[in-house]
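Hi C.,

You asked whether I'd gotten around to modeling the 504-residue construct. I have! Everything is below, sequence then structure, no commentary in between.
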Amino acid sequence: MVKYVLAIDQGTTSSRAIIFDKSGSIISTGQLEHEQILPQAGWVEHDPKEIWDNTREAIGQALSKANITRHDIEAVGITNQRETAVVWDKNTGVPVYNAIVWQDTRTQAIVDRLAAVGGVERFKDKVGLPLATYFSGTKIVWILENVEGARAKADAGDLLFGTTDSWVLWNLTGGTEGGVHATDVTNASRTMFMDLETLQWDDEILSIFDVPRSMLPEIKSSSEVYGIASGHSLLREVPIAGILGDQQAATFGQAAFDQGEAKNTYGTGNFLIFNTGTEIVHSKNGLLTTVGYKLGDEPVHYALEGSIAVTGSLVQWMRDQLGLIKNASEIEDLAKTVKDNGGAYFVPAFSGLFAPYWRSDARGALVGLTRYVNKGHIARAALEAIAYQTREVLDAVNADSGVPLTELKVDGGATANDLLMQFQADIIGVPVVRPVVAETTALGAAYAAGLAVGFWNGLADLRSNWQEDSRWEPAMDKNEADRLLRNWKKAVTKTLDWVDEDVR
């Protein structure tokens, strides 16, 4: 009897369920988008109940399309948007507030307050992260300080916090009827609360943030059986056996298991992860130190990460806010109507600038405009912005690691854009390689779950599944690439120092 692994991919814009076979091929997919709630400038929220409802429906869609049942599923893996924070009442299962999304910048005042002693790198040696609105720790603080009754409930031990993997796991394993409250080391490493060496919550930091430890999930490895799906689920009695934050999952799905291997995911944002093996490498060039993965009792693997807030969501913004395109896929054809960017540069610092700058005071800017510039040039400038930001992160990775990458493995929706992928190769000067299975995030979660139950025997099995689909070689004159990058860096300077006490 043929068996499969199901991956739940709880992302920023949608929740998906994808069923994989032993070769790592996709059998079927279910997917539902959820609402992007934008109460005011800089605020981004999701409805956790909508996310859970959509997750259940996506599971049903995937099983139905494959014409299989829970009896055909060996294990379930979960991957998720990492820093998005959910706080809920453990007695009722009801969230006390909407999920605060990783892109949200409302907690800047909390960041400033915490950074008043020791600066933004106050905790970086221990947790690998600078103080920033990006991470979930300050989002919990905001909820406790601003939602009526939340602080009292938290102090009484009635509230639970989790990134969306924990929210899905808790509900999938029974919720108020014995739901498992856990997360894995990769997600825990994005809170600002986990000590990278001990892989445990740090009581001193929790005390400084004033977050009760009772709210936090138990930290587990990325590949082990956390619990069994409850009787209320279409997957009842199936083990939940893998959890990886989305970018770490994509790295795992790309079979970048060893020191020196890397990948770049093109999603809502861009995330380049460089595997540093079992060594913690502290960045001197604006990168994050994070956990790459941990398989059961085996040693933990660490990574350097370059996080870029706005890439795919820039295309979404041009579709939804400006109406320049009707579908995201149309941006390539629009960009092809011109031969270059016409002198225009688009710096999408909608949530400030992430790696390698970490400037929360930055805001988006479209510069270099003349009357010659048309919507084709703007579309091209938007695509080029994705590639320039990746180049800057790659330069930082090369400087920190001392081992220049010789090729860049890529995945995510935007890798279907040939114009972007060619420009990416041109601007970084090394080949860009896309695998046959571009859904590497869900695949990585499936791999972690399958390893835990013996569906796959080891990393060698997973490596043999990886196959190259497309390769883009650099073709642009180096002097021209250098000129474009120089102008991009000039454009970035125009976005800085925008937010102050009068402008938010």
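If it helps when you're writing up: The longest strand covers residues 26-33.

Thanks,
B.
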